[in-house]
Amino acid sequence: MTRTRRMFLFIMMVTLVAIGAMAGIKYAGFAGLLPSQVKAIIAEAPVTVTVSSSVTKQRWMEEMARRFAQDGARTSAGQPIEIIVKGVLSGDSMDRILSGDDQPVAWSPGESSWVAQLDGRWRASHGSPISSAECKPTVYTPSGIAMWRPMAEALGWPGKPVSWKSIIALASDPQGWGRHGHPEWGQLKLGYTHPQYSSAGLLFLASVIYGQTGKTEGLTPQDVYSRPVEEALSAMARNTSKYGMVTTNLLDMMARQGPDFLHVIAGFEEGVVRFNLERQAELRFPLAFVFPSEGTFWSDHPYCILDGAPWVTPEQAEAAGLFGSYLRDSEQQAAAGDFLLRPLDAKRGSGSHLTLANGTDPAPRPETIKPFEVPGAEAAGAIIDQFLATKRKARVLLVLDVSSSMNGAPIRAATEATARFLKRLDPRDEVALMVFNDGIRLVSDFAPAAGGAEGLSQRVLQLVSGGGTNLNGAVCAAAEAMAKARRPESGESRLNGIVLLSDGADTAGAISETRMLQTCLPRSAEVDGTKIFAIAFGDGADREALNRIAHQTGGAVFAADPGTIDQTYLRISAEQ
Fold it and tell me: What's the predicted TM-score (pTM) here?
C-alpha cells in the first residue's frame, strides 16, 4: 500500500469516527470501542521521514531504508516508520533547503563542508542551528583521479605514486602524452564537476590547493586567495576541457564518446568501479581509480537530522534518529561494500567488488593514505569564489523555438526561465540569442554578459510565438554563427555551447535531418568543440532527433516542462 493511500485511509477513518461521534450514532458496544479504535488508528499511522542523500550512496541508503521497514522499526509511541530516500546534489540541495523548496527531515550530503555551510547560513537568517545534534558519518567514499587504465599505467599506476600536481603539469605540457611515450594520445584532457553543486568538484579543487600550500589541514581563505594558488587554478582552468554537474555525467560521456573525449576526471571510487562493472561492454578500456599521492579526502557522508527546521516534528526527528543509528550498525556497515562504499570500521572489509581487477586498490584506508581535512565553511566559500573567478569562460548561443505550438504557458515558462539563466552567466561570458519558427532570426549577436544580459533578458521576455518549426535549419544557422564567433587567432580559450530549446519536430524547413547532421555538425564530438545542449520542452518535442543532435556534438539532451525548466537551465549552466 502506498504512503498516499495509507494517509488517505487514516484521514477517512478519523473523519468517519468524528462524524459518528458528533452525530450521536449509537450501536452496541460503539461507545466503549471508540477510544481504542482511535488509538489503534493513530498507532498504525506511519511517521514519514524524507532523507535527502548524496547520489553516491543513494542506492545503499534506499536498500537500508527497505531493510529498516522490513525489520519493523517503530517509534517509542509504537508508530511504524516510513523512510523515503531522495538522491540530491549536495550544493543544490543545500540551497533548496535554505529557500524552503526542499524540506527533508534528514540530510546526508557527500561531505561535512556542506554541513558547515548550511548551518552557518541557517544561523545567519534564523538565529539558531538547523540541527541540534552532531551530524554523524555513515560510510566512506574516497575521492581521487579517475582515468583510462592504459593511461594510468603509463604514469606508473598501481605501483608508482601519481599526484594531482603531475596530472595538471601534464595537461599544460606542450608535449602532452608524448613525455610518457604516447604522442598518439595528444594533449591530456581534464574534466571535473562544478564545485558550487558537486562535492567531487569542491574536493578536487581543495586537493589542488592543499598540494600548492603543502598543508593537509587548516585551509584558510587567505590560502585560497594567495597568488601562487590563484596562478595554479588559472593555469589549470586554461587546460580544463570539460565542466559538469555530476561526475556520473562526465563518466557517461567518457563511455559514450570514447577515450579521446576526456582522459582524466576528478571523481569518487564508487562511480569508477560501478562504471567498470555495469558498462564494461561499452568501454573501450576499463577505468582506473587512483589515490593521489598528495593525499585524499575520505568523504564520510554525514547524516544530519534537521530538527531545527520548522517543518520537522519531534516524532519525525525521533524516527530519523533511529534510522541514523541503524545505518551505523555493524550489519548495515558490512553491506556497504556491496554498494561500492567503504564501511567506517576497516574490520568490516570492503567487499568483493573493490579490487584491482575492477579498477581500484582495496588496501588504502584513512589510516594509511593521508587524509585531507575537509575545508570549513569560509574556506569552502573562498574555493567556490576562486573557481568562478579563474574558470574558463563560456560563449553561449541561445536558440529558442517560438513556433505556434509554444503559445500560452509554454512560451511564458520558457522565456522566464531563459531570462533567469541569462542573469546567472558570468559577466565575462559571451552570449547571443537566436529564435526560430518558419524563419530564423539572430536577435542579438555575441556580446559580454556584463553589459548585455539584463537587456537581453528583457528582450527574451517580450518574445511572441507563431508559425511552424524550422528546427533543422535553426541548428545549421546556429552552428554557422558559432563558427564565425570563435576566434582561434586571438588565443582566447572559451567553452562553446549552443542551448537549443524546442517543443516539436521539424515541420517547416527545407533541410533534412540527414543533411543537417552530415553537413552542419561535426562528424565526431571534440572536447573543445561546440556542444549542443538540447532541451526537449514538453511532450510534443522530438526527443530522439534532439538526442542525435546533442550526442553528435558531445552535448546532452534534457527533458523539461514548465515545472522543471529552471532546474534544467541550472544543470546546463554548470556545464559552461
Answer: 0.76
